[in-house]
Amino acid sequence: MSVIWAPPSTEESERWLAIADELSTGHFEPLAGELDRDQRYPWESVERLVDSGLAGLFVPKQFGGQGASFATTCAVIERISRGCASTGAILTAYALGGTPLVLAGTEAQQAKYLGALAAGEAVSFALTEVGAGSDAAQIKATATREGDLWRIRGEKIYIGNGGASRYYVVFALTDPEAGARGITAFMVDKEADGVVIDHLEDKMGIRGTQTSNLKLDTVVRDEDMLGDLGRGMRLAMQTLNAGRISVAAQSVGVALSGYDEASREAVKRHTFGTAIIDNQGIAFPLADVATRITAARMITTHAAEAYDRGESVAVLGAMAKLYASEASHDAVDLAVQVFGGDGFCKPTRAERLYRDQRILEIYEGTSEIQRLVLGRAIKADVVAQEEVA
User: Fold this and answer.
1) Domains assigned to the chain
2) d(CA 225, CA 223)
3) How far apart are CA 211 and CA 316, in angstroms?
């Protein structure tokens, strides 16, 4: 058996993981270095994700998707990320953009936008602004009434799949005096008048993805409102609770890729007449990384299964994202170290993974935010126990 724990498989997960493995081995993984070098969005990979059904894996069947469980979706994200972190990030962004529609969309909205997502016209999540990243309640974008329309003004930044997606879930203040309780979500089409994307980030890692801004001075209708008026922040947090689990899965995939590189090189590379893995200075860190990846995979799998059962995953999602992202940091750092000077130089996989990994501790809530979430949960738990006592 493998040193790394593998979750029990189901007929559903086996089917989709076989497809993911074939695509990853045959296409995504061989293309990863080129995408990183050229910072190119891989439309040919997106076409494969769509044609195989992986793009709409989580989308209900009645809207053109596959209706797979969240646990299976996360397992596929992990597998794709193991071969190519950029393609894994694209798939993760698909899930993030689609989740608000699954949670709060009307049947008409779900049919239109989730159906489009499954067919390759992706939906992106547009929450972050300058000065409103970790503290999302500080957004400044507004949506004001103009007759029977809403005019949205503002600018969003750091949008995953930005520019490549057709539709955007935009969060804006409909009642500025109400603060976080005055935020509402709207569906916005990038082809609409007054919607401009004029900046793509030049990123350190996951360079095969697009990350953009979104400038808005456009109008939408009441039927474009997603969820209830003033309930946008709640919807955003529910979405991020799930999104953190998918990023944890992405992190496990990147961690496994780093572990693969480090362990193979440690067995192959010899110094002073022996394989370097026979030295405790290499074997012990590898043992620690293998243990951390197993633990990260376990908590991520448990969190995804809890989400499928309809349980609250605010705490589990934060734990999974925090632990898995930091475990992946350890894995890729060790890979660079094991490769020595080669690991520091392009175009080695270890060097690319080192850069790809770093965003995992930042987006969908930084490690500090996850610890803040968990700290508040611990406090609430203690207070509740004292009240019972």
Assistant:
1) 11-122 (1.10.540.10), 124-231 (2.40.110.10), 234-382 (1.20.140.10)
2) 5
3) 27
Exactly one of 364, 368, 386, 387 is catalytic; which is it?
Answer: 364
Q: Positive or negative, the Cα torsion across 84, 27, 293, 340?
A: negative
Extended strands (E) in the chain: 123-126, 142-146, 149-160, 167-173, 183-189, 195-196, 211-221, 225-226, 270-271, 274-275
What tens digit of pLDDT does each residue of 144-180 get? 999 999 999 999 999 999 999 999 999 999 999 998 9
Structure token pair of residue 95: 């899930």
Q: Are strands 195-196 and 211-221 parallel, antiparallel or unpaired?
A: antiparallel
CA-to-CA distance for 245 and 125, rounded, in angstroms? 16
Q: Name the token pair of 45.
A: 């990979």
Burial of 375 (0-12, 13-18, 19+ CB in 10 A): exposed
Strands 270-271 and 274-275: antiparallel
| Digit-coded pLDDT (tens) for 105-116 | 999 999 999 999
Residue 364 known to be catalytic: yes
Neighbours of 388 (CB within 10 A): 6
